[in-house]
Amino acid sequence: MEIVSSIGKMQKVSAGLRREGRRIGLVPTMGALHEGHLSLIRKARSECDVVVVSVFVNPTQFGPSEDFTRYPRPFLRDTGLCRKERVDYLFHPSAPAMFPAGHRTFAEVRGLEDLLCGAVRPGHFKGVATVVLKLFNIVSPSDAYFGSKDYQQSLIIRTMAEDLNVPVTVKVLPIVREKDGLALSSRNAYMSAAQRQTAAHIPRAMKLAKNLFKQGVRDPSLIERKLKSFLKERGIDDIDYVSCIDPNDLSPVRKIDSPVRLALAVRVGTVRLIDNMLLTPQGH
Ligand code: AMP
Question: Tell me: the pLDDT tens digits for 66-111?
């Protein structure tokens, strides 16, 4: 595995590989790799000739009061994990190289970026779409791998690539979870043991939603209300949203008569956690 930090070098390498007709798979990450990331890397490894993993904590997607400086950066450990997964290139640019003074061009995905997480984290998805577009231009992958844990993000990236005619196939893979169902996240490490126990109520709330749905509940507002009180009664009262949304455009749905995504974002202490799942009525 080669570690590349220069943008110019990465572009040269990928242009050469493309000329040879090799299929490049890109897995964009912010590092602090866990099994969720590794599932994307393994999929890329199984489908592509060359696997590039990017590790870049993107300053433009963090708000001024967010955790940019304290975001975990265990680079040596990440390097070892990538080697073990037979990654070919680990792209690890610096922030000033990606966003030098004078950088003034950004990608916006209107109508999708200001909802849900975007409503609470203004500018977040503009930063995400921009850095991913830059990574696409630097690595020129034929396939790029994302997790559906960040469902809104995956839809925004897919839309951005389509709208801007980026010749890449965006692939979105299932959420990898802990034994108790909590979605794996680099931010889980911030939690104390007690907070981690509280966080276990999130997958239980998702299960409750699934059961309500199985019992025939098709009113999204009832599901949302029940989930919110379930979480509040168990000490999770800082809730950004619990929302049944149209999987295609993230708009709120009034009745579940086609597949919907149930998405939520809550805070346990100061740690912001998200989760989502698909509710599919029979016959769809
Ligand atoms: P991050 O490093 O948090 O920016 O995530 C990099 C990629 O890994 C994104 O596409 C995430 O959606 C994906 N990812 C993060 N957590 C998980 C998980 N638990 N299961 C599957 N994919 C994940």
Answer: 999 999 999 999 999 999 999 999 999 999 999 999 999 999 999 9
Distance 216 CA to ligand 1 centre (A): 32
pLDDT, position 283: 86
Residue having the nearest C-alpha atom to atom 8 of ligand 1: 37
Tell me, in angstroms, the distance from the centre of ligand 1 to residue 157's CA: 13
pLDDT for residue 114: 97
pLDDT for the residue numbered 284: 87
Q: pLDDT per residue over 18-41, tens digit each?
A: 999 999 999 999 999 999 999 999
Pocket test for ligand 1, best of 66, 143, 149 (most atoms within 8 A of CB): 149
Distance 209 CA to ligand 1 centre (A): 23
Under-50 pLDDT residues of the chain: none
pLDDT given at position 155: 98
* DSSP per-residue letters across the chain: -EEE--HHHHHHHHHHHHHTTPPEEEEEE-SS--HHHHHHHHHHHHH-SEEEEEE---GGGS-TTSSTTTS---HHHHHHHHHHTT-SEEE---HHHHS-TT-------TTTSSSHHHHHSTTHHHHHHHHHHHHHHHH--SEEEEEGGGHHHHHHHHHHHHHTT---EEEEEPPPB-TTSPBP-GGGGGS-HHHHHHHTHHHHHHHHHHHHHHTT---HHHHHHHHHHHHHHTT--EEEEEEEE-TTT--B-SS-SS-EEEEEEEEETTEEEEEEEEE--TT-
Active site residues: 37
Closest ligand 1 atom to 183 CA? 19
Pocket of ligand 1 (CB under 6 A): 29-30, 36-37, 39-40, 146-147, 149-150, 175-176, 183-186
